[in-house]
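So, can you check these tokens?
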Amino acid sequence: MKLDSNFIRSQFPVFKEPSLDEWAYFENAGGSYTCQQVIDRLMDYYTKTKVQPCYLFKASLEADVRMNESYTQLAGYLNVSEDEINFGPSTTQNIYVLANALKPLWENGGEIIVSNQDHEANAGAWRRLSHPGLVIKEWKVNAETGKLDLDELDKLITDQTKMIAFPHSSNVIAHINPVRVIADKAHAVGAIAMVDGVSYSPHGLPDLQELGADIYMFSLYKTWGPHLGLMYTKRDLMDRMENQSHFFNGGYDRCKLTPAGPDHAQIAAAAGMATYFDAVYDHHFDEEADAAERGRKLHKLFADHEKELMHPLMDFLKSRDDVKVIGPTDPEERAATISILPKNMSVVELATKLTEQKLMVGHGNFYAVRPLESVGVEVEEGVVRVSFVHYNTMEEIQQLINGLKVALG
């Protein structure tokens, strides 16, 4: 099955925007374009139901229904129960709230393993929990490849290990880590597997049952949705956490890990992501399937398309001796987020020249200070990052390659 790019792009109003004509967007890792279904639900909510939900009058009841749809429909695509889903203002804030909720479980000490391949959101929060009885161990990447070595993890795990925190894929290195294998290692010693999925999920939502993680976080504004963070937490683990909301809300699943009032409109809009997935599935597949199976098929459809786009770009980058790719160069091993370090000019100069070619790229350290330092990159300057998702096309990849030829000389 081949992805129909014309259909995909028809679902995103940005591709009809005159001010962006001829521009190719390659900073999806920082935030994706939003699909029409999400925009429609957001506008509809603000127009018809922008009231406090759950009262007895019609608009309030309808507001509650629209919010509930997001929990139900996204849980279906993630293959989890809707009472295991929480929405918060961002993944970073969700992780800090989660750290406070888990902290009491570790008052008697133990060990937390945190990788240095992580975005700071999933590194800093856990490191701050360190106290004389709670030891933070660092799972270090290979300085040459940027990869995390499972043999090195085995050396760190003990019967005192309480949690292993790591990314599904780094936002600068992009190697896809074997989540199920790592989760099984954690569970063998009774530890929690905590996964930052922010950089991976834009390339296809994962089947969380299949992954086996206890906690999985990602950002909806990087998966074609509103500016929210989604947090999955296994039911039995959530039950053991300390309430982070008002004391009288501790018994409510959607309050316990959400100390502030939720953004009702954006939560309601999030169901538009599932509506978009339904439209893409129905356009490409004839078979009836539940949401979890739809999600698995769409994941493969998106991944296959992105790998096809990655091959010519990687072939070009590997042919040059004036740039370095951070992380693996095999498209089968990585997500479509590619960090480039120019050898003969500054990062800013390369980013500027690419912008002149109507290429929207990112540059800097992307809050990935630890992984960049670990592979010898000067974090003040950082890297040029090009990232794409399933709505990007081979024509845009060729535009990027041509732009790099001009920029690099």
